[in-house]
Amino acid sequence: MSALALPHTWRPRKTRIFCYVIAGGLLVVLAIVAMILPHDGARAWNLPSRIGVFAVGIPMAAFLHRHGDVRIIASDSGLEVVNLFRRHHLKWGEVLAVRLRRGDPWAFLDLSNGETIPAMGIQNSDGDAAPRAARELASLVREKSG
User: Fold this and answer.
1) Looking at the structure, do residues 42 and 76 belong to the same domain, yes or no?
2) How far apart, in whole angstroms, are the C-alpha atoms of residue 65 and residue 128?
3) Which of 73, 60, 68 is nearest to 16 (CA)?
4) Residues 139 and 103 placed together within one structural domain of the fold
5) Global pTM?
6) 119 in helix, strand or coil?
7) Which of 68, 79, 99, 126 might form a disulfide with 90, Cβ 3.0–4.6 angstroms?
8) What is the mean pLDDT of the chain?
9) 2: number of CA atoms within 13 Å, CB side?
10) Domain boundaries, position 41
11) How many angstroms separate the CA atoms of 40 and 26, rounded?
C-alpha cells in the first residue's frame, strides 16, 4: 500500500512562486505607470488610455497564472495531468512509466499507446524535491497499474 493518501497533488514550488510574484509585480508596475502618466498638456492621457496601459498586463498575468497552475493529481481512478495548454485524464493502466532525467525541465509519462506526455507538475527547478516527487509518482503508478 502506498504511503500517499489519495487524492494527492504535485505542484512545482519555485515555478509557482516565480510566476505569481512576476504577475503581481507586473500589474502593480502597470497600475503605477497608468496613474503617473500626464493628465494635461500636449501629451495628456485620458482614462480609457490609462485603463489600456494597465490592461496590457492582464493577458500576461493570465499566462503566468496558467504556468503557475500546472499540476498532477493522483486519485483512485487515475491521474489528471494539467499542463500549460492541455489537460490529460489518464487511467492507471494507461501510464507505464514516470521519467525525470537530469536536464529535463519536468517529468514525462510514458503511456500504453506509445505516447510520451509532459507532466509539468514535477519540475527539475525544485531541486531535490523533484526526483523525490517523481519517485513517489512512479511508485504509485507501479502500485496502481499492477
Assistant:
1) no
2) 24
3) 68
4) yes
5) 0.86
6) strand
7) 79
8) 94
9) 20
10) 14-66
11) 26
